[in-house]
Write a structure and sequence with these properties.
The complex is a heterodimer of chains A (113) and B (162).
Chain A (H helix, E strand, L loop, with lengths): L2 H12 L2 H11 L3 E2 H5 L6 H14 L2 E6 L2 E6 L4 H35 L1
Antiparallel strand pairs in A: 1-3, 2-3
Helix pairs in contact in A: 1-4, 1-5
Chain B lengths: L12 E7 L3 H9 L1 H7 L6 E8 L6 E8 L4 E2 L2 E8 L3 E5 L17 E9 L2 E9 L3 H9 L2 H19 L1
Helix pairs in contact in B: 1-2, 1-4, 2-4
The chains are: A alpha+beta (113), B alpha+beta (162).
Chain lengths: 113, 162
Amino acid sequence: MAPTAVADDVFYALSNSTRRKVLEQLSAGPATVSELAAPFDMKLPSFVQHLSVLERSRLVKSKKRGRVRTYEIAPDRFQVAEDWLAARRQLWEARLDRFDQYVKELKEKESAT
Amino acid sequence: MSKQFAINPKLDFAIERFIDAPTRLVWEALTKPEHLKEWYMPKAWGRVSRTEMDVRPGGIFSIDIATGDGREVPNLGCFLEAIPMERLVWTSMLFPGYRPAVFDDIPITAIITMESVGTGTRYVFTALHRNEADLEANKSSGFYQGTEIAVDQLVEHVKSMK
C-alpha cells in the first residue's frame, strides 16, 4: 500500500473517540472483545465494526483462541502518525527559526541607520 | 442475469421497490457520497457522517453513520462487482482491496440490482447471511427495519433528483 494510503487508514482509525479509548485500554495490555466492549454502551456488532477499522489500520492485531478473540497494540503503525506529525513540527520550527532570524536582521538594520 | 447467487428465504432478506425514475439516477443515488448522505441512514435515527466509495471491484465501501446521541459507527467493506445501472455487490467479509477481514460480527453480502421498467426502475436490495441465526440477529437488532426505512428514503430522494 502507498504511504499516503497507510497514513489515511491510521488517521481515520484515530479520528473517533471510541477507537481512541480502545487504544488507551489496550496500551495497558491485551484484552478480549468483551472486555474491550464493556465500558461502552453500544451494541456488540457496532462495537466490532470499530475493532475492524482499528484492525484494518493495523494499529492493533488480534488472535483467536477457541471462541475468544484477544486484541493487542501493534506499535509499528503508531510510527506512521508520529512521523507525519514530527515532519510537520520540524517544518514549522524551521520556519519560525527563519522568521526569528529575519526579525533580528530587521532590528539590526534599523539600529544601524 | 446468470444465476451467480440464489436467495434462500431462510438465510436472506430482499427488499423490492419500483422507483419512478430512470436507472441512471438510481445508480447515482447509490454511488455518490452527496446522494448517499441524503437517504442511507433513517432520518429519525441519525445521519451519515462520512462516506468513501471507490465503486469498482476491490474498491472501498465505507459509510460512517452517526446516531442521535452523536455516536459514530463505521460500516466498512469491499466492492465485489459494479456494473453501472445494473448491479452493485459489496461485502463486509472483506476489507477494501480484497484483504480478508477479521470478523466476529454478523457479516453480510449486499446485492443491489436495478432494471428498467417502462420509464421507471425496479430496485432490489438483497442481504445474504451466513446462517439463520445471523439473519435473526439482523432482524431483531433493527438492521432490517433500518434498511427498509433507508430504501423508502432512497425512493423519495431519487424522485426529488428528477
